[in-house]
From TrEMBL:
Residues 15-186 form the Ketopantoate reductase N-terminal domain. This is 2-dehydropantoate 2-reductase. PANTHER family: 2-DEHYDROPANTOATE 2-REDUCTASE, PROBABLE 2-DEHYDROPANTOATE 2-REDUCTASE. GO terms for cellular component: cytoplasm. Residues 231-355 form the Ketopantoate reductase C-terminal domain. InterPro entries: 6-PGluconate_DH-like_C_sf, 6PGD_dom2, KPA_reductase, KPR-Related, KPR_N, NAD(P)-bd_dom_sf. It comes from Rhizodiscina lignyota.
Length: 376
């Protein structure tokens, strides 16, 4: 069947995307189909709504302007835009039977905000656990707080390597094509009890459904479905790149990824970090990475070509925003330690960068106090 013209879904599918930034708008806009004005419903029966924050008024007024390398430029008008999670939860336009899928596409900052607690009013729980939570975030260990809070709901874990950014409020640019990897999450190891196995089975069914939505209805060619262990391997493998490049670019004085790998001492350091993640992942998941996942030397060689790439942590550091330190460094170190493996290099990066962030926050707060005092 042509991916251009899939038939409308028999039953309506209600998707709520929490976090209308680069990633949220990119995936939401691919799943959304134009509203048919006569029937007042989306042509494919897929309703995609957005929970915004600072960009709410512009998105509510004029939608999201998408500038994509792959699909061209277009305006995405969601089924509904909400200014906050409580507003979405209490809205009369929310689906009566709850959202089928809740995509979480905020930055993963568990040291600042508990995403699972935040989205709780949106999640239909109960024995049938109707709402499936889809996490499109970097790092490892992002699923566990959701699993604890929503023990019966299926979880889909997603890793994306799209490169996208919100260049101004309500304007999102996709710079590079994406590969999207999806898999279920029960307990991180594929379900060790009968209940866990059942959750993994339901998560796998949701995973396959979201892959179908993305590929046939969203035109995203390389969305791939994994089993639970396979998906965790993809997550740890992405951490291998993120945990090496992201903190090192900040701590090396603001160097881009390609620039770092051309420096012999930094290259050695990055390779050491990547090898450490390879070993840790084997301890945690019980098996080595499959051969198809690139080894450190190959990752370093391909990074040489990424001359305009600036790791997201560096961009966040430059703008004084919180960095995704816990999910990219803290969680891997802690999870590996629980399995008896000490990640010495990552632990060092984690301690240094966490301290740098704390010191900078304190000094910014002191400056603000001084300025306020001067004004009084
Ligand atoms: N961008 C990429 O190319 C890329 C690639 C791979 C993976 N990722 C990962 O994908 C995740 C999302 O990244 P991103 O680049 O899309 O970040 P982003 O552009 O900063 O988007 C996050 C959005 O979430 C919103 N938000 C945060 N808390 C919210 C809340 N409580 N209610 C409503 N909205 C809320 C933010 O609003 P405000 O603007 O008001 O803060 C922002 O619009 C991260 O884990 C990132 O590492 C990103």
């Amino acid at each position: 069947m042509s991916s251009q013209h899939p038939p409308p879904k028999e039953k309506p599918v209600h998707i709520l995307v929490v976090g209308a930034g680069a990633i949220g708008c990119f995936y939401a806009s691919r799943l959304h189909h134009k509203i048919l004005t006569i029937l007042r419903q989306p042509s494919k029966n897929i309703y995609v709504s957005l929970v915004c924050r600072s960009n709410y008024s512009i998105v509510a007024r004029s939608g999201v302007q998408m500038k994509t390398r792959t699909f061209g430029d277009y305006t995405f008008t969601p089924a509904a835009a909400y200014p906050s999670i409580p507003a979405a939860a209490s809205s009369s336009s929310a689906p009566k039977d709850g959202w089928d899928y809740i995509f979480v596409t905020t930055k993963a900052l568990p040291d600042i905000v508990d995403d699972a607690a935040e989205i709780e009013p949106l999640v239909r729980k109960g024995p049938d656990g109707k709402s499936c939570i889809v996490l499109i975030q970097n790092g490892v260990g992002v699923e566990e707080p959701h699993r604890k809070r929503f023990p019966n709901n299926p979880l889909v874990s997603v890793v994306t390597i799209v490169s996208a950014e919100q260049i101004s409020q309500g304007v999102v640019r996709q710079n590079r094509w994406t590969r999207t990897s999806l898999g279920p999450y029960s307990d991180g190891l594929g379900g060790r009890t009968a209940e866990g196995k059942e959750l993994a089975r339901r998560g796998q069914a949701c995973t396959d459904d979201v892959v179908d939505l993305l590929t046939r209805y969203g035109g995203i060619r390389d969305a791939e479905s994994y089993d639970e262990i396979g998906m965790q391997q993809v997550r740890w493998h992405k951490v291998c790149i993120n945990a090496a490049n992201n903190p090192s670019s900040v701590l090396s004085g603001g160097r881009g990824s390609a620039n770092m790998v051309m420096d012999p001492d930094l290259r050695l350091h990055l390779k050491g970090c990547m090898e450490e993640v390879f070993e840790a992942a084997e301890h945690v998941l019980g098996e080595p990475f499959p051969a198809k996942l690139a080894k450190p030397e190959r990752i370093l060689t391909s990074t040489e070509r990424n001359t305009d790439g600036r790791p997201s942590m560096l961009v966040d550091w430059i703008h004084g925003r919180p960095m995704e330190l816990e999910v990219i460094l803290g969680n891997p170190v802690r999870i590996a330690r629980e399995r008896g493996y000490e990640m010495k290099r990552l632990q060092t990066l984690y301690a240094l960068l966490k301290s740098a962030q704390k010191m900078r926050k304190e000094s910014t707060e002191q400056d603000a106090k001084r300025q306020n005092g001067a004004k009084l």
